[in-house]
Amino acid sequence: MHAPVIAPLLLAVYWTVMLLLSALMAPLALIDGITKAWADASATEAAPAERAGLAIVVTGCDSGFGRSLAVALAERGYTVFAGCLSPESASSLTGIHRLRACKMDVTSDADVDSCVAAVHAWVEEGRGARRLLSVVSNAGRGAGGWVDWLSMGDYESDIAVNFLGVVRVSKSFLPLLRRSAAAAAGSPFAAPPRLLIVSSMSGKLPLANVWGVHVSTALPSFHRTPLTTGGVGVLVRKWTSLGGEARALYGDHCAESCFRIADGMMSDWAWEPERVTEALARAATSRGAPPAELNLLRHLPAAALETVIWRWYASELVPPAGASADGKGRAS
């Protein structure tokens, strides 16, 4: 697919087939839309009497989406833990029924751990009648401006909040979410816990080419390079360095399946790196501007892409020992 001529021909064939099948697909698309619309219309949430026992954590509640969301959820009867960067913002939210403001800088382990401890204590006080429903990672920042206007410190600050902050919050609340999943699994009507990450469509918008400089992103699959050939060893070292609790949560069978899949990705399924090198060379030297993204799979429908990824990479994955067969986690 990286070879000259082949990639554009494959793309042309793909869209030709899609257009030829459009007459057959149109009714299916309509049925799918009606089905989803019906599901949206009939979707229900927890009964008002149950909502007080469901906690929702929202980060970035100083202003904007986060503050409005926290207040709206509290008014609907949920117990909301609103993470605020500044103590003043947290104080301004006090007094709202069922809303518990907490100081939370998502770049701070101590702040995040403190909020996790508060939610954990609240769950324990319920003696089985309370659980964490959602964690909404909404905190974000953006320096804004052209690349020449921004310093490396601006980018590092953005990454610290928008990426590492999301990882820190997700990782810290995951044990409570797993515990909530186990509780929800006991009832067919209980909503499963979830992580929600607020990003921005600006990350998908191509910027104006005002300087005549084109930007293209390459997304190679697995190829035989030093980065991938040593990957299994890295996984093994990470696994062996884990403590007993984490190893028991995942189990040896899960770890071994990860090693097998990684070995397949990085050896049997990996392509020769020259394919990518050739594609990059063409993109770097061709008279015509390269496409904004070098990735054929992005043209597949989401459901088809997920199926390809699952069948290719994860079909032989053994679930963690602490997760049930249907993917709903047990208590941790």
From TrEMBL:
<keyword id="KW-0812">Transmembrane</keyword>
<feature type="transmembrane region" description="Helical">
    <location>
        <begin position="6"/>
        <end position="31"/>
    </location>
</feature>
<dbReference type="Pfam" id="PF00106">
    <property type="entry name" value="adh_short"/>
</dbReference>
<keyword id="KW-1133">Transmembrane helix</keyword>
<dbReference type="InterPro" id="IPR002347">
    <property type="entry name" value="SDR_fam"/>
</dbReference>
<dbReference type="GO" id="GO:0016491">
    <property type="term" value="F:oxidoreductase activity"/>
</dbReference>
<keyword id="KW-0472">Membrane</keyword>
<protein>
    <submittedName>
        <fullName>Uncharacterized protein</fullName>
    </submittedName>
</protein>
<dbReference type="GO" id="GO:0008202">
    <property type="term" value="P:steroid metabolic process"/>
</dbReference>
<dbReference type="InterPro" id="IPR036291">
    <property type="entry name" value="NAD(P)-bd_dom_sf"/>
</dbReference>
